[in-house]
Design a protein that fits this description.
The chain contains 6 helices and 10 strands; from the N terminus they run ααβαββαβββββαββα. The chain has 231 residues and is an alpha+beta fold. The chain has 2 domains: 34 residues, no CATH class; 137 residues. The longest helix has 23 residues. The two termini are 15 Å apart.
């Protein structure tokens, strides 16, 4: 079961963008994930904002949404600091992408997908005992209460450290299960990145309808027989 508040957000946005599976396309897939990210940030108050500590020291409130200015517009000092952190955004966005992907596969396909426990170090989901799935998605931007968008550095697999982590997990998994499949799913793939010569059997962008269908076809082809003892 998808935990709250993810469940409520995902159900609402899936119904809004993807309920009619005959009309799923790149645009509404991207909207589905993007608005889910917006909702989870809003729920936890994880906005991009700044505050001036020099003004705070003098019992003056100087703050704003988005990118922090080099100097405070009130006191003129360079004592402005961002409030929200990348770590908080990344964790919530990563969880949101994983659960939104889980919902998508449950609703759009006949595949039986299982979420893995937190202590699992190599992948996030499995399809039977044959396919491991690593979900590496993240937000492109933060939408602030004033309507402005604060764009994050690099979403999804476009981050080099995310890419390295995903393939490192693939190496560990394939060393233990060489005959199984290891797939990576994301919402952003850098141009030219492939799995050729690396420890993964597929890399799929879930905001791309063609990739989504290819992922489902590959899983259907490679899932093997379900082991009753596995469940």
């Amino acid at each position: 079961m998808i935990p709250e508040p993810y469940q409520s957000i995902i159900n609402k946005r899936y119904e809004q963008f993807l309920q009619d599976t005959t009309k799923i396309n790149d645009e509404n897939l991207k909207n589905y994930f993007d608005i889910c990210f917006e909702d989870i940030f809003s729920h936890y108050g994880l906005y991009a904002c700044w505050i001036c500590v020099n003004c705070m020291k003098n019992n003056i409130l100087s703050k704003g949404w988005g990118e922090k200015p080099d100097v405070c517009p009130k006191c003129g000092e360079s004592t402005t600091f961002s409030v929200a952190t990348f770590q908080a955004w990344a964790t919530k966005a990563g969880d949101m992408f994983g659960w939104a992907f889980y919902k998508l596969i449950q609703e759009y396909s006949d595949l039986e997908i299982t979420s893995m426990p937190r202590h699992n170090r190599t992948h996030d989901f499995e399809i039977t005992h044959k396919i491991a799935i690593e979900a590496k998605g993240s937000a492109e931007y933060i939408k602030n209460p004033d309507g402005s968008k604060y764009y994050l550095d690099i979403p999804g697999m476009k981050r080099s450290d995310t890419e390295k982590k995903a393939f490192a997990n693939g190496e560990k998994y394939k060393s233990q299960h060489p005959n199984n499949k290891f797939f990576i799913v994301t919402n952003a793939v850098p141009e030219g990145l492939t799995v050729e010569g690396r420890a993964a059997d597929g890399l799929f962008d879930m905001t791309n309808k063609q990739d989504l269908d290819k992922f489902i076809n590959e899983c259907t082809k490679n899932k093997g027989e379900t082991l009753s003892s596995f469940f």
